[in-house]
Design a protein that fits this description.
Strand content: 5-15%
Order of helices and strands: EHEHEHEHEHEHEHEHEHEHEHEHEHHH
Largest sheet: 7 strands, parallel
Helix content: 40-55%
Number of strands: 13
Radius of gyration: 23 Å
CATH architecture of the largest domain: 3-Layer(aba) Sandwich
Strand order of the largest sheet: 3-2-1-4-5-6-7
CATH class of the largest domain: Alpha Beta
Shape: elongated
Number of domains: 2
Length: 404
């Protein structure tokens, strides 16, 4: 079954899903991307007249799910013990039958093994979410992750992930659809952030109102590029570029990395322009306060902040790595007039320095135009509404193909 031809599903068009019962399975509803995505899709299902059930261990977001039209069904979906998982296959099968579920969508690996068994028993269509970070690893990991490629529809979170999944699991190639990670454009919106919030962030950073800021909002690790930014800042200083302050905002991947970064800053003699802070408590305000976001990461998962930066109109510089590079429109893939940021090699401080210099040199008009393009890019490709439309289109494709 190829779903490439399925048109994006619009919330206002209930055709295909009205009256259907969709059961999402997620480990818990404590928070984080999985729980948030589940609630967003449940709300979209409710708006089109579908019954949106969520089977989960539960958590602090259960009330939010219910307020947005979802129905919480207690289920130990976080179980990873093999015996518990085996018992859960029967439990989930009974739940599917008792609730009359027309389709099951599972969002984690352990739960996917349970859901696959249960849906084969009940002959119920299965949708699996396959994050790009699981598309690889050693032979054992590839085998364990393979369950995510066995859904009737496989949702990849990027075009790069879709390509990797098809290469690893050829049998899934015609079942893959892309539903990218989304951002709430109401929260990440310049209009939603007051000047007082921006001022509070800049006071915390100890930067003056007129000083441009290069922000790196990422956990300190070898893959996130803090050392590359330090070297890029040293290059810019040697070239005579004065003025910008560099803020490294984020916790440590492991103890001792912060001290290592502080030592590297001192060795580069950048203590007067670069400082390390903790995680951003108010990321929308931090991105609005920043002149440039630097995110030259070389690992999966770095795309979120690049999307959020564009939503806030901040020029973003990202690493040319997997899904991260997909978030930015930049030459040679698009014309210069369509640029929304810069894509550089993660291990090339000179290229990062050149991109920083270009971004910091933008005039007011050019920066405003780039900010508008970046915001439009996010609204068109990465908004919650678009992500939900892509997900519901996958559900709808099963009904159109007679499987739902």
């Amino acid at each position: 079954m190829s779903i490439a031809s399925v048109l994006p599903f619009k919330d206002g068009d209930a055709q295909g899903l009205a009256g259907a019962t969709i059961l999402q399975v997620v480990p818990d509803l404590q928070g984080g991307p999985l729980a948030r995505a589940t609630i967003d899709v449940a709300a979209a299902l409710s708006r089109v007249g579908a019954n949106a059930l969520v089977a989960s261990r539960g958590g602090r977001l259960v009330s939010e799910l219910q307020a947005k039209g979802g129905v919480f069904v207690p289920f130990p979906a976080d179980a990873k013990n093999p015996l518990s998982m085996l018992l859960n296959i029967g439990r989930l099968a009974r739940l599917i039958k008792s609730e009359g579920a027309d389709l099951v969508h599972v969002r984690s690996r352990a739960a996917a093994w349970v859901a696959f068994g249960a849906t084969r028993l009940t002959k119920t269509p299965l949708v699996t979410s396959f994050p790009g970070r699981y598309a690889g690893g050693n032979a054992l990991e590839v085998r364990y992750n393979s369950i995510l490629a066995r859904g009737d529809v496989v949702l990849a979170d990027s075009a790069e992930a879709a390509k990797l999944i098809a290469e690893l699991y050829p049998a899934a190639a015609n079942k893959i659809a892309v539903a990218r990670r989304g951002v709430d454009c109401k929260v990440f919106s310049p209009a939603a952030v007051s000047p007082a919030r921006v001022q509070a962030v800049r006071r915390e950073w100890k930067v003056e109102a007129h000083e441009p800021v290069v922000l790196m909002a990422a956990t300190i690790s070898a893959a996130c590029g803090q050392k590359a930014l330090i070297e890029a800042a040293r290059i810019l200083r040697a070239q005579g570029l004065a003025g910008p302050k560099f803020i490294l905002a984020g916790g440590e991947a492991r103890r001792g990395l912060g001290v290592e970064i502080d030592r590297a800053i001192a060795q580069a003699e950048l203590q007067d322009v670069m400082r390390r802070t903790g995680r951003c408590a108010d990321l929308p305000a931090a991105l609005l306060a920043a002149s440039v976001l630097a995110a030259p990461v070389n690992q999966p998962g770095g795309e979120a902040v690049a999307i959020e930066a564009q939503a806030m109109g901040a020029p973003a510089i990202v690493g040319n790595f997997g899904a991260v590079a997909e978030t930015i429109l930049a030459p040679p893939e698009v014309e210069e007039t369509q640029r929304t940021g810069w894509v550089v090699s993660p291990g090339d401080p000179a290229a990062l320095a050149a991109a920083l210099k270009a971004a910091l040199s933008l005039g007011a008009t050019a920066r405003d135009r780039l900010a508008l393009r970046a915001r439009e890019n996010v609204e068109r490709r990465f908004s919650l509404e678009q992500v939900c439309a892509d997900t519901l289109a996958a559900y709808r494709s099963l009904r159109l193909n007679g499987e739902l």
